[in-house]
Amino acid sequence: MVFSDWRQEPTTSDALQMDGWTWQGTIPWIKPASRPRKGGFKQSAEFITWGVKGTLNNSRDLYLPGHFTASQPRKDRVHITQKPLEIMQQLVQICPENGVVLDPFTGSGSTGVAALREGWRFVGIELSPHYAEIAEQRLRAELTQDDFVLAGPEA
Description:
By secondary structure, the protein is of the alpha/beta class. It has helices at 9-18, 85-91, 110-117, 129-142; strands at residues 2-4, 22-30, 45-52, 68-69, 100-103, 121-125, 150-151. The protein has a four-stranded mixed β-sheet with strand order 1-3-2-4, covered by helices on one side. The protein has a three-stranded parallel β-sheet with strand order 5-6-7, covered by helices on one side. α3 runs parallel beside α4 (129-142).
């Protein structure tokens, strides 16, 4: 899954397919609390382009929504693109059983927190030492033992 706005969505789906993934669709995330755009339409949505390697496992008893509505976190928000945990906890469920959730742009760690809460293993990569530290603190707060590694520029 890749989050983007409308400008990157076509290129994102093309790149996904060029890398051997089977494009499964685009899921809208409607953000009620968003900034107006002077002279144009409010940019109140992001898009989640998703795909699978191989074929979709439709034998699982899993039914996820086709769209999401939630505002970005206001309380405890530590990153400009921080995603709502309630959305991320649903999204990580698409990961194959016994799979690992990978977030190559971890930011504040919301994907990792969601993955851990839902029982998935998680690998996070973050270039910014500042955000890597924030993500590590959030992930450690979810764990009862020290059994994860957050890769960053100094790792």
